[in-house]
Amino acid sequence: MITLGIIGVIASITIPNVVAKYRASVLRTQFKKSYSILSQALSLTAEELGGNLHEMFKDEPPGFDGAVLFRETFNNYLISTLELKKSSQLFAFAPYNKNLESDDTTMGLGTYPGYIILGDGTAVSVLKNNDRLNVLVDINGLKRPNRAGYDTFLFVVDTKQDILTSWSQDAQKYCSKTSSHSYNGRACTYYAMIDRSPDDSSKGYWEALDF
Fold first, then answer.
1. Given CB 3.0 to 4.6 Å as the disulfide criterion, which of 8, 102, 132, 198 pairs with 171?
2. Are the CB atoms for 107 and 146 separated by under 8 Å?
3. What is the residue range of 26's domain?
4. Distance between CA 113 and CA 12 in Å, rounded?
5. Number of compact structural domains in the chain
């Protein structure tokens, strides 16, 4: 009985850690795959439209009526790569700080103008937001955790070259487990890309996720 008790204690400590590491590994792989596919779509979009995308659309209005040509061209290349599963509006997702409630404005896009759901389940929303071309991706679609910096990431088209980059690198406000800022999660894209925890530089980004 004592032996079984010890085994039970060890299992209760070990199993959650193993599960968390597995979930983090899956998300990391999905993030890399999504980034590669989105980058390819952007490269093809720039080739078709003539490049220098940020300058090309900078004077167009924000919102659904802005950068329509960019959105449609970009989405077409995504669909041709993965096939369109369906088009949908998704529910709110939670900020990076787990102590805060879900908010559909966390990334500044919410569910408008809606997402295209690709054949592998990836959900993508493209929108001109202020002066930036935004690409919001949920790397596992409707599956949980639907949390910024976990499976939901915001990319923007760089202002100097046609590549996808992070909206910000400011971890204190925009990617911290303790930040209460309404945009907390926007900068997590940067730290996911370099695989470094924004709260502890000695740890990798994915291993530091708090499930």
1. 198
2. no
3. 2-208
4. 44
5. 1
